Each structure stands twice: as structure tokens, then as C-alpha cells.
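Encode chain A's predicted structure.
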Amino acid sequence: MTAIVKDEQEDAFSINARRKKIKDFVPKGYVIFDTIYGDLNKDGQEDCVFIIKATDKSQFINDESRGELDRNRRGIIVLLKKNDAYELVVINYNCFSSENEDGGVYFAPELSFEISKGKLFINYSHGRYGYWEYTFRYQNSDLELIGYDSSSNSGPVINSETSINFLTGKRITNENTNENADSGEEVFKKIVAKVSKNKLTKLSEIEDFDEFQVLDQ
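Encoded structure for chain A:
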């Protein structure tokens, strides 16, 4: 993350730390792309997570088959509801690629968000190839990564599933040992391993989810 972005984030925290309207937290040069509501700190109030998207005209391209595409990156802002106002707790300007990203020989995965049971889930769905999902929880004045789940598929057949709990330091992998399996015929071998229980990764510190490796932190 560049020094300029860090300075912008510091300014956002100091100047816009508390506002009544969600739109007042949108940085200059960005628009709201998506909005999700839910209780992140279990105080009975609806907090808000919204996805922002840059509006830099230089990031528009012309694709031969798809026409004009907006390749501006997306970011995330997390607000906690405090009575009649919102408090800013996380701002990350550019951690997600554009929704119009080129997936190469594959299609680009679909990004979605959900707040459930006090946690924020960031999910990448890759259709017949599987999915991967990050679980964040509000703590230490940020949202910290406490879990990761993924599935590698060949169509309806599950090749492997992985679940990591960063609080317990445990990784569970289920590998399909039936190479000729149809859907529902998988035979899984369970592998349990330890992962390092280092300092938990903060959502505000992830520069690019496309390059983020959960076990390298």
C-alpha cells in the first residue's frame, strides 16, 4: 500500500470518524458499489459494510468482444452503528479487483459479501471450479481474519476441501481419494495439520485479495 493511500486513510479516520449518513464516508473519486447490513459487534444495531469503486476514467478499456469495460478496482469500508450515527472502523481503498476483470481461459470468480452471526464473510465463487471464503470478526478496532474455507471442484465432484481456524491454529483438509467418482461418490481422506498462530491479519492491511496467501502471513 502506498504512502499516499495510507495518508488518505489516516485523514479519513480523523476527519470522517463519525457521521450520520453512509454517503458521507465515501472518499472523493469513489462511488458506492454494494452495501451490506448486519450486526458486527453484537450490540443489536445494524452496522454497515459497503464496497466502494474508483471512478478513474483512465481505467476504462475497450475489449474486442465485450465492449467498454470499467477496470477500476474496488475497496471496502466498515461502519459500526452508534445510536443515530455511524463510526468508521475499517477503510481499504483498493483491495478487490474490478468486477470486469479478465479471467483468462476461465471466467473471473464472482465476489460476494455477507454478515452473519457477528462475522463478515467475503466469498469468491468460481462456479464448477469451487470457491474460497474469508471469515472476519470485529476485534482490536479492526476486522481480523479468523477463518478460511475453500473447495476445489471438477464440476459437481469435490476434489478437496480445506478449512482453517486461525484462532485454534488448526487446518483440516478433506481430499477425495476416489479418482473416478461422480458427484456424491467421493471418498475423503481427512488430514489435520497445525498452522502458525501469529498475529491475525487485519482487513485494513490486505493490499490485494488476488495476491493474498492466507498461510504466508
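The first helix runs from residue 3 to 15.
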